[in-house]
Every structure is written in structure tokens, then in C-alpha cells.
Amino acid sequence: MDQDDILIIGIGNIFRGDDAAGLVAAGRLREMQLPGVKVLEIDGDISSLAEGWQGAHRVVVIDAMASRSQAGRIFRFEAHGEPLPRKLFASCCTCHAFGLAEQIEIARSLKQLPSSLIVYGLEGKDFMLGAGLSPEVQEALPRLVEQIRRDLGLS
Amino acid sequence: MSARTIKVDYLARVEGEGALHIKIKGGRVAGVQLQIWEPPRFFEAFLRGRYFTEAPDITARICGICPVAYQMSAVQAMEEALKVKVEGPLRALRRLLYCGEWIESHALHLFMLHAPDFLGYDDSLQMAQDHPDLVKMGLQLKKVGNEVVALLGGREIHPINVRVGGFYRVPSQKELAPLAERLKWARDAARQTVAWVAGFPFPDYEADYEFVALRHPEEYPLNEGRLVSNRGLDIQVRDYERHFQEEHVPYTHALHSTLKTRGHGRGPYLVGPLARYNLNFDRLSPLAREAAQQTGLGPECRNPFKSIIIRAVEILYAVDEALRLIEAYEMPAEPAVPAAPRAGVGYGCTEAPRGILYHRYHLDERGLIQEAKIVPPTSQNQMSMESDLRQFVTGHLDLPQEQLTWQCEQMIRNYDPCISCATHFLNLHLDRE
């Protein structure tokens, strides 16, 4: 990808209720066909996250969170500067307990972080298998998408 | 009288959730309980009434690390029930797909979950700070395995291209060529890995296991063979349930498997890399065998801590075998042989990265599943894990609590337990009284 491009990565599992939030948000940003924006959706093994952003300088990652705060709340972290709070990004649903926070820290140790890595978390409510998005998350999604657009200077 | 408890409230670097309690009383190990408390998932029950074609995709969902193993055992069983033979390039492609899974699964366990134990790190994150090049190599190896699975299976996790009779789509020779280049890099990396892990410090421990693995006349076992053991078991897969039995144990959600032993009732047995290696050393490719021998490992190994070396040897074997299969590959005219429904019973057993995975299905004349049985490797190893811990702790009671606890966790990780398969785990408690 072009150095100046912005890469948006959505992470989630469409079969686990609000866990799909990151994928849905990334999908909406893809549909907007924003200039200079590439979108990658990861619905499984996130161990290849660093591979995905190789060559990109500006990266935005969107994932669902289960931090017991209010459903629909939006969090923003500048992960290039400091580690994500591990507790907020539960690794319970991933293989061998490698969550997003761990993946980012491994990439940091391996000097594979992009110069700008912004992580957006959207607090979920229901992560049950087979559940759809909760009303709180559905309501928050347009706000999240708009905030990301503004953040990237694209709105 | 001194009492001691070994307790680890959350055992990391295993797949799933559960607990381990070890009680030491009066200088003796009074009890070892491996408690798997993830809820049962009832796959066998909800397979009933489904069409035979659905089994590979439904059972693949049992595990995100070894979905190919579930697909391979499922299609093998279905094809036996339907009297379908999958041979030639289609069989070779399945073996290639399985090699991909071995590479990614073993690389994940070896580099990210198990190596930190030997080097004194809490996790791979810490290890990555001091050994970035090794962690990069491990992640790359895993990626090569994922690429094999993605190319043949359609995607890297829960592949969707396997079907009863063959595949939905088969690759051309040209599509496989870039994979071969990546595998050549992986072959060198795997050789380095064998040499690296062989230099780890290994606790002094050996056990008198009954090893159980598949054995094939020509190949190192992956997707075909007879079930054999080092104590004389030599049976067809269809006779599995005459020799092996699953039973409920009150403290765990996963069923315990036992093997009928001559004159001694029922006992534990060991499946997985250590068992495969001990029973099939002569079936390794020359390259993998030489790499093992160069580390000083002979055809026999009874130290479970050294299973990390054997996993490295199996990565090398899987890479070498994948390259051989790609070189010999000729694209078949059809991606699958026809499979028509009929009433019957089929049995399948293949070598998942963690050991033998057994499936049995009863089909009615419409091809609907009437009964399904699935025995994953981790539940087969549960009793061996407990007996290993009992024996290991007995011989190392003089170790300080922290070190003993560490080595007990390490012992469990020797098995690379996949608790989502067995049904899931792990907290560790070592009680001294």
C-alpha cells in the first residue's frame, strides 16, 4: 500500500453479538470509499495483525470491548505511545489468550508498530453466540464511524 | 506433619479454562485432580439429524487451532460409511492441508506458549523483548502454516473447502508454486528451531507410558493408519471402542479415556507428538530424522519435557512433506469423487497436532446422522497428565514451592492441551498439608 494511505482494521466475530462491532464499523467505512483509505477486516486469527499493517504509517484498529463500562461507550487509545490497558480488551474469546493488547505489545517489542496506531474500542453488552448487535452498540456505531472520520480529517 | 498446596489461580498459555489441584500430605502426593470446568458443548448431540455433508464444517468449529483435524477425521469416517475412496492427488492435497495445520499449531505452541517456560519468561511478550528474531521466526513459521491452510482450505481458520469425497475446489500447480518458495524458507527455519530448542535445560524426568498413535506402512502418520501402541496394541480404527473407553469423572467436564491393558484392567495412555515419534521414528523423512539425531535424540524418548524438541522435528517433517507433496502434485480432473447417501457406519481417526482424534457416525439411508461420537486427543491425555504430575511432584518434593509450581505448569504445557476440544481449562493448586 501507498505510504500515505490510511489503513483501517476491523476485528471481531460476526457470530458473537457485539463482538462484531469492529467489523461492522470497518465495513461501513469501507462502503464510504474514503480517498486514500484501505480497510481490512479480520474475523479470526489476529496473530497476523502486524503483517496486515506492514508498510502502513497510519493505522486505525477498531475492536469491541468488554470492560464492564456502559454499553455503547467509545474509547480511543494512542497505542503507538503506550500499551493498551490489557484488562479492557478481553482475550477470553481468542485462541490461547492472545488478545489485541498482547498482539500490539509483541509488535512493539519486534519494532513492527506503525508510527501512528489509534485503537478505537466500542463497549459491548452481549457477546452471546448467535446474538445480533445490541441496541446500545447499534446506536453508537454511527457516532463511532463519524468520530473516526473526523479523527482522520476525512469528514 | 507438613502440608503443602500447589496453587496457580490462572494457568496461562493453554487453550481454554479449568483448574489443577495437587495436594501433598506428609511428604506424599495425596491427590491430583485436573478439573476442566468449561461447559460441555454437545456437538455429538447436535450432529444428530444433520446431513452427512455437514459434518466436516460443523465439527471444524470445535477448535480454532486444529479445525483441519476435525474435518479430516469426519470425512474419513463419512467416506468409509458411504464406501467412497479418496486417492491420488485428492488424498495428497488433504495431507498437504494437514501439514499446514501441524506447522501453524506446533509453531504457535512451541514459540509463543512453551518456549517461555524453558527460558524463564512469564510469557512470549517478555521473550520477544530479549529474543525478537526468534519470535519473528516463530510467527513467520506459523504464518507459512496458515498460508497452506488458507490456500487449500479457503481461509486459515475453520476452512470451508473440504467436503466428503474431496474438495469443492482444487488448486493448480501454478497456485502451489509460491507456497513452495515459502516452505523452502520454513525448512531452514524449522532446522534452526530443532537445534535451538534442543539446547534448552530439561528437567530430569521420564515416565513409562503406553504410547498410542497411528501407524502407516510408508508414511509418518497424519491421516491414515492402524492404531498401535508400544505394548502390543495393533488394531483397525473401527475397533477403537472395543479397546478404549470414555468415562465420567465427578470433578471434570471432560470425559476421561482409558485403554484396556492386558491383565491390569484399564489404564492411562499417551497420544500426541511423543507417542507418534516413539512409534514412527522410522517413518520420518531422512531430513527430520537426521535433525533429531543431531540433537542427540534417539528413536525413543520418554521425557515429556522434550516433547518441545519433537514438535520442532514434526514442524520440519511437515514442511519437508509439504514440499514433497507439492513437487509430485498433478491437478486432478475433478475436485471430488461422488458420494451418495446410504445407510452405514463409518469410523475415522487421524493425527491432530495433539494426538489421535477419533470420529464415528451412523447414517440412515437418507444420509442423515443418527449417532455421532468424537474423542479428542486432550481428553485422551487427561489421565496421563495427572499421572505425570503425581510422579513428577513425588520425585521433586524438595523443590521450592515457586519452582515446583512453575514446573507443574510446564508439565501441563508439555501436552499442548487444547481444552476447547476436550471441552476446555486452567487454574493450578498445589496443596501441602
Brief write-up:
Chain A has 155 residues and is of the alpha/beta class. Chain A has helices at residues 21-31, 49-52, 100-109, 135-151; strands at 6-11, 37-42, 58-65, 74-78, 116-123. Chain B has a domain at 43-204 and 327-397: Cytochrome-c3 Hydrogenase, chain B.
What does this molecule look like?
The complex is a heterodimer of chains A (155) and B (433). With 155 residues, chain A is α/β, with parallel strands linked by helices. The longest helix of chain A has 17 residues, at 135-151. Chain A has a single domain, classed as 3-Layer(aba) Sandwich (Rossmann fold), CATH 3.40.50.1450. The model of chain A is unreliable at 91-96 (pLDDT under 50). In chain A, 27% of the residues lie in helices and 21% in strands. Chain A is built from four helices and five strands. Chain B has 433 residues and is of the alpha+beta class. Chain B has a domain at 43-204 and 327-397: Orthogonal Bundle (Cytochrome-c3 Hydrogenase, chain B), CATH 1.10.645.10. Chain A binds chain B through residues 44-45, 47-48, 50-51, 95-98, 102, 105-106, 109-111, and chain B through 12-15, 64-65, 108, 112-113, 123-125, 128-129, 132, 135-136, 139, 142-143, 146, 155-158.
Element order of chain B: H for helix, E for strand:
EEEHHHHHHEEHEEEHEEEHHHEEEHHHE
**What value does the Rg of chain A take, in angstroms?**
14 Å
Radius of gyration of chain B: 21 Å
CATH top level label of the domain at 43-204 and 327-397 in chain B: Mainly Alpha
Overall, the morphology of chain A is globular
Strand content of chain A: 15-25%
Main sheet properties of chain B: 3 strands, mixed
CATH class of chain A: Alpha Beta
- CATH structural architecture of chain A: 3-Layer(aba) Sandwich
DSSP helix fraction of chain B: 40-55%
Low-confidence sequence ranges of chain B: 422-427
**Percent of residues in helices of chain A:** 25-40%
Strand order of the largest sheet of chain A: 2-1-3-5-4
